[in-house]
C-alpha cells in the first residue's frame, strides 16, 4: 500500500512539472503547419448548409462560438469551396463535435499525404517485456495544428450561421491522420520504449522515459485528455488489445458473437466439440488483429432470422484470417423482409458495425447473393425505383466510397452462415447516429417530390386528367400529342415499378430548380431522363438559366450553354451543348434569346 501511495505521489509530482499539459484552453502547436496539395485546375465545390435537428441548434451554436473564440475557425463573407457540417454528439451528450463533410469537397481533389501510419505488429513488438504501462491520450489533436494560409480556403464549412473558414486542421480531412502521425513521430523521435499511433501514446516502465515524453509535449504546446490517461498500470487496453507483462490478449468484444453463440442440444459430444471450436476461433491461431496495411474483406450472410458479418484480412499467401465477428437476431418486422432486403441489410449492418475499421479504406464485400453486385454497384447509381429502404441503405453505404463487391459461393461462407443461423438472442435497439438524422432531415427538407405530391398534382392536372381517360384521338389539342405518341408506354400505378414517373405541370419547376442548384452541366442534367419524363423536358432543362456565348471564330453566331461557376467579378465558366467548357467575360454573354443567331 505504501508503495502504491509513493508511486501515485510521484506521478502527481511529475505531471505537476508541466501544468500546460492539463489546461482547458486550446492553443496552437508551435513550429508546425498543415498543408493540402490541390490541383490548381480543380473545380471548386460549394454546398449549401444542411438542416440540423432543432435539439442540436443551441449546441451547434455554442460549439461554433467556442471554435471561433479559440481561433480555430473564423467567419468569411465569400467562399468558392464550402462543405456542409455533420454535428456529432459527444459521449456525455452535453456538447457536439462539428465535423465538416469534406469528402464532398476538398477530399475529392487533394493529394492524400502519404506518410505511413505505423504497422500494428511493429507497435506490439516494442511493447514486449514491459511490466508497467502509461497510456497518454492527446486532446483535440487535429485542432492544435494550424493550416498554411493557402490551404485554408479549401476547408470552409457552410452552417446555418453562415460560412466559417478553418484556420486549423480538423476532423474529416483526408490527410489529417498522416499529418498528425508525422508530427508526433518527429516530436518524440529518439525516446526509447514508446509507441505512438495518432493521438494514443504508450510508454513502458521507467519514469525518466515518461518525463522525456511529457517535456517534449509541453514544449510544443500539446494538451492531454487526463480523463483517458492511465499512469504506471500493470495492464492497459491499447488498439483493441489488453497489454500486460504476459503479452497481448484480444478485447472480448471482438469475438463476443462467437463466445455467446448457443450450444447444440443434441448431445454432450457435440457440445464439447462446439466449445472447442469456439475457443479456436477466439485464439491467436485464428483471430488476428487489425493492420492498416493489409487488405480488408467484409463477408456477409443473412438467414431468415439473423445476420452474420465477419471482418477479415487477406494475407500474402491468399488466406483470410478473421479480425472480428458479429451476429444479430432480426426483429419480427425485419423477418418479414424479402430475402434480397435481408442480404442488403446484412451488408449495411456489417459496414456500420465495423465502421471504425472500414471508413476511408478500400475493402471488398463478399456475399453469395449475386443481385447485390448490380443493385449496390459502387460505379452505378442506385435504381431510383428500388424499394425505399434499399435506397436508404445504399445512401448509407455510399459514405464508404472505396469498396467493391465480389461473389462468394454459399458453401464457402461457413463462418458467416453459422453466425446468421446462430444469432445472439438479444436484439439491440438501433439508435440512428446524428449523421444519419442530419442526412435524413436534409433529404426530407430538399426532396422535390414524393408519391403523395405526384398523386396530388396528377389529380389536379387538367391535361393528365384527360390522359388518364385514354382518349382515342387527340384532335387539335397540341398539348396531348406527346402523351398520345407514347400511349403504349403510359400506365397508372399505385407503386412505382420499372418505368419513369410522369411529372405534372405543377411539379416540373421544382424538379428543374433543384437539379440546377448544383450546376451539374447539361449532360448530367439530361440524365434526369432515367427517372422522370414530361413533354419538352429537354427544352425545359436547357432553357433554365440558359446563356449564349459569342463564337469568336464566327462573330455572327452564338453558342448555347449554361453557367456552371462564377470565376471572378465579371467572368464565368460556361458549359456548352457539346460539353466544352469556356471561360467568358460577361460582355461576351447574352441571356436574351431574341434576335440572336445560334449555331
Automatic annotation (TrEMBL):
InterPro entries, alphabetized: DNA/RNA_pol_sf, Retrovirus_Pol_polyprotein, Rev_trsase/Diguanyl_cyclase, RT_dom, RT_RNaseH
**Domain of life of the organism in this record?**
Eukaryota
One Pfam match, by short name? RT_RNaseH
Query: What residues does the Reverse transcriptase domain cover?
Result: 1-243
| Protein keywords | Endonuclease, Hydrolase, Nuclease, Nucleotidyltransferase, RNA-directed DNA polymerase, Transferase
Annotated GO molecular function terms are: RNA-directed DNA polymerase activity; RNA-DNA hybrid ribonuclease activity
- Please indicate if the UniProt record lists S-adenosyl-L-methionine as a keyword: no
Q: What is its EC number?
A: 3.1.26.4
Family annotation (PANTHER family): PROTEIN CBG26694, RIBONUCLEASE H
The record's similarity note reads: Belongs to the beta type-B retroviral polymerase family. HERV class-II K(HML-2) pol subfamily.
- The molecule here is called ribonuclease H
Q: From what organism does this protein derive? A: Latimeria chalumnae
> Which lineage ranks, top first, belong to the organism behind this chain?
Eukaryota, Metazoa, Chordata, Craniata, Vertebrata
Amino acid at each position: 500500500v505504501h508503495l502504491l501511495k509513493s508511486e501515485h505521489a510521484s506521478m502527481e509530482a511529475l505531471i505537476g512539472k508541466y501544468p500546460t499539459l492539463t489546461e482547458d484552453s486550446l492553443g496552437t502547436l508551435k513550429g508546425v503547419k498543415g498543408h493540402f496539395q490541390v490541383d490548381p485546375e480543380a473545380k471548386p465545390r460549394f454546398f449549401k448548409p444542411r438542416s440540423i435537428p432543432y435539439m442540436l441548434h443551441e449546441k451547434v451554436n455554442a460549439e461554433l462560438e467556442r471554435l471561433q473564440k479559440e481561433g480555430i475557425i473564423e467567419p468569411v463573407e465569400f467562399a468558392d469551396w464550402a462543405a456542409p457540417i455533420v454535428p456529432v454528439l459527444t459521449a456525455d451528450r452535453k456538447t457536439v463535435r462539428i465535423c465538416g463533410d469534406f469528402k464532398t469537397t476538398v477530399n475529392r481533389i487533394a493529394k492524400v499525404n502519404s506518410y505511413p501510419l505505423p504497422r500494428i505488429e511493429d507497435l506490439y513488438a516494442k511493447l514486449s517485456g514491459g511490466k508497467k504501462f502509461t497510456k497518454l491520450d492527446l486532446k483535440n489533436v487535429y485542432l492544435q495544428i494550424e493550416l498554411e494560409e493557402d490551404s485554408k480556403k479549401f476547408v470552409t464549412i457552410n452552417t446555418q450561421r453562415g460560412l466559417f473558414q478553418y484556420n486549423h486542421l480538423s476532423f474529416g480531412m483526408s490527410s489529417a491522420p498522416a499529418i498528425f502521425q508525422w508530427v508526433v513521430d518527429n516530436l518524440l523521435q529518439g525516446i526509447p520504449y514508446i509507441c505512438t499511433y495518432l493521438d494514443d501514446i504508450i510508454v513502458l516502465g521507467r519514469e525518466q522515459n515518461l518525463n522525456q515524453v511529457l517535456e517534449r509535449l509541453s514544449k510544443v504546446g500539446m494538451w492531454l485528455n487526463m480523463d483517458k490517461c492511465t499512469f504506471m498500470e500493470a495492464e492497459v487496453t491499447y488498439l483493441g488489445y489488453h497489454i500486460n507483462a504476459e503479452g497481448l490478449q484480444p478485447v472480448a468484444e471482438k469475438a463476443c458473437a462467437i463466445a455467446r453463440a448457443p450450444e447444440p442440444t443434441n448431445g454432450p459430444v457435440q457440445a464439447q466439440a462446439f466449445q472447442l471450436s469456439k475457443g479456436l476461433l477466439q485464439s491467436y491461431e485464428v483471430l488476428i488483429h487489425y493492420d492498416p496495411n493489409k487488405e480488408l474483406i467484409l463477408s456477409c450472410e443473412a438467414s431468415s432470422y439473423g445476420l452474420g458479418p465477419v471482418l477479415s484480412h487477406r494475407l500474402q499467401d491468399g488466406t483470410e484470417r478473421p479480425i472480428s465477428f458479429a451476429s444479430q437476431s432480426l426483429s419480427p418486422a425485419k423477418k418479414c423482409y424479402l430475402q434480397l432486403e435481408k442480404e442488403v441489410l446484412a451488408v449495411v449492418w456489417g459496414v456500420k458495425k465495423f465502421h471504425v475499421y472500414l471508413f476511408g479504406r478500400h475493402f471488398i464485400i463478399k456475399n453469395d447473393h449475386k443481385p447485390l453486385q448490380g443493385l449496390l454497384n459502387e460505379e452505378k447509381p442506385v435504381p431510383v425505383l428500388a424499394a425505399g429502404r434499399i435506397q436508404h441503405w445504399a445512401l448509407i453505404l455510399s459514405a464508404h466510397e472505396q469498396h467493391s463487391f465480389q461473389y462468394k459461393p454459399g458453401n464457402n461462407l461457413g463462418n458467416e452462415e453459422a453466425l446468421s443461423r446462430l444469432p445472439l438472442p438479444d436484439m439491440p435497439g438501433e439508435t440512428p447516429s446524428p449523421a444519419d438524422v442530419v442526412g435524413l432531415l436534409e433529404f426530407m427538407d430538399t426532396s422535390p417530390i414524393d408519391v403523395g405530391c405526384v398523386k396530388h398534382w396528377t389529380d389536379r392536372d387538367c391535361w393528365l386528367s384527360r390522359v388518364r381517360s385514354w382518349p382515342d384521338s387527340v384532335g387539335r389539342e397540341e398539348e396531348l400529342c406527346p402523351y398520345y405518341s407514347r400511349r403504349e408506354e403510359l400506365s397508372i400505378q399505385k407503386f412505382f415499378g420499372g418505368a419513369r414517373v410522369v411529372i405534372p405541370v405543377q411539379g416540373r419547376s421544382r424538379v428543374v430548380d433543384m437539379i440546377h442548384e448544383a450546376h451539374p452541366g447539361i449532360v448530367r442534367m439530361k440524365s434526369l431522363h432515367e427517372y422522370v419524363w414530361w413533354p419538352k423536358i429537354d427544352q425545359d432543362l436547357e432553357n433554365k438559366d440558359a446563356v449564349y456565348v459569342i463564337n469568336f471564330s464566327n462573330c455572327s453566331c452564338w453558342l448555347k450553354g449554361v453557367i456552371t461557376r462564377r470565376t471572378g467579378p465579371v467572368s464565368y465558366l460556361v458549359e456548352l451543348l457539346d460539353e466544352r467548357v469556356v471561360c467568358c467575360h460577361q460582355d461576351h454573354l447574352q441571356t436574351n434569346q431574341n434576335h440572336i443567331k445560334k449555331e
